[in-house]
User: What shape does this take?
Amino acid sequence: MTDEKIALVTGANKGIGFAVARRLGERGIVVVVGARDETLGKQAADALAADGIAATALRLDVTDPEGVAEAAREIERRHGRLDILVNNAGTAGGFTGAPSAATAADLREVYETNVLGVVTVTHAMLPLLRRSPAGRIVNLSSHVGSLTLNSDPDSPLAGVNMIAYQSSKTALNAVTVAYAKELRGTPVKVNAALPGVVATDINHHRGPRTPAEGAAVVVRLALLDESGPSGVCLADEGPVPW
Assistant: This one.
């Protein structure tokens, strides 16, 4: 078992995930670059390694339970434990119509990654996180998942109505709270990070924030000390109501 902290970031071959992996690696943390595409994952890990970061690639499709279980076994073989899990992989799906036009299949496409994928990965990695003296789980959520903000007609989100993506992030928030409640009193802290509207593939690179800017709050939660919170939804500006 290694002495360095070990972090797994899902969907880390690009965007916010890659920026998180870089920031964690720059702090001396060994980064496991989880990526659905093995080639892209290796390219990302090699790019980080070229900058002096201890990074390795790991094929990880969050929608494939057997593959996720094998990924957990591989991390155990390599490192013996896991200190940080960043559930970053996500999708907006292909549906862009009115909620009344959405089908269950439209939502299922998004939930498979954004909600069920997080549950699958967390379930597989939690035994390894329990071996850490200070396990941290960070789930990538969004302001658009806040029921408080969405139900306020004066909120900036009043005109945003993406049923599949928004409800998936609301469900992810509930999942985050559930894990935090179960793990209360243990060294494992579970929180949701809100990176803001970042220019990534998910919004066709139209966000005003850079991946590095979006990664800051994720890294902050990943590196919480013992006095830090668990079960919170945090953005750069501070806690955001669920």
Q: What stands out?
A: The mean pLDDT is 95.
